[in-house]
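Tokens for chain A. Residues wanted.
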């Protein structure tokens, strides 16, 4: 969901984001002064020091899926957008994973109906181990038994990245983009140079309040499906 032409200070961005749940603090140190819930993503360098995280999210992923409390929403506010020869750079690509699931063959849906997924570090370990010079040990027997899982995941990963499920957002200064982590993937496009400045402010909202029974009306409203979601703010006096 896009809210164009916004003029928000850090407090307003934080207050808006808190309406939807708790906000994960930035652990990188790149955040508004005294406000670890308002992160800064930027390639701007001031006084020899980067003011923000410069390489955030430059591959397909969804945020915080590995946390005990998963991510719910990302709220990203565009302050500076790079351009070259009139072309907007530094876009963000999205995949609609609801649509990707709906498009799976019915026999695949049936096979996956009771499947569970664990978000862990093993796949990254194996990728690192295959690099020249790696001293990491071979996979364990348990890891080898995961081969069927790997084939299924490879099929699903390729399926969900088909262009028909994708949308690329070209930013304009003042855009606030709010997206649902559970039903999307996203990837930042690193097509700009160090002197083409990009500055975003971000709040990462956790999926805590959305599962609170007191917030059931909000959950019902938000479950109408992608592309048809009315904006219904949760109660002002709820937990934040
Ligand atoms: Fe991300």
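Reply:
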């Amino acid at each position: 969901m896009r809210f164009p032409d916004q003029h928000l200070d850090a407090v307003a961005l934080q207050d808006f984001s808190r309406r939807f749940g708790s906000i994960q603090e930035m652990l990188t140190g790149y955040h508004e002064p005294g406000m670890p819930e308002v992160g800064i993503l930027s390639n701007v360098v001031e006084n020899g020091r980067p003011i923000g995280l410069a390489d955030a999210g430059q591959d397909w992923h969804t945020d915080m899926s590995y946390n005990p409390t998963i991510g719910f929403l990302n709220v990203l506010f565009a302050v500076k957008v790079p351009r070259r020869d009139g072309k907007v750079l530094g876009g963000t690509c999205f995949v609609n994973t609801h649509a990707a699931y709906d498009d799976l063959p019915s026999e695949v849906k049936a096979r996956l109906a009771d499947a569970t997924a664990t978000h862990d570090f093993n796949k990254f370990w194996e990728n690192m181990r295959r690099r020249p010079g790696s001293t990491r040990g071979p996979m364990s027997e348990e890891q080898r038994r995961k081969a069927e899982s790997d084939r299924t995941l490879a099929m699903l990963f390729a399926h969900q990245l088909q262009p028909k499920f994708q949308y690329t957002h070209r930013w304009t200064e003042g855009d606030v983009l709010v997206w649902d982590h559970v039903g999307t993937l996203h990837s930042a496009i690193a097509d700009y140079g160090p002197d083409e400045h990009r500055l975003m402010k971000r709040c990462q909202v956790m999926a805590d309040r959305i599962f609170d029974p007191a917030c059931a009306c909000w959950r019902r409203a938000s479950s109408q499906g992608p592309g048809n979601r009315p904006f219904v703010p949760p109660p002002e006096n709820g937990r934040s």
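The radius of gyration is 20 Å. Confidence is low (pLDDT under 50) at residues 224-240.
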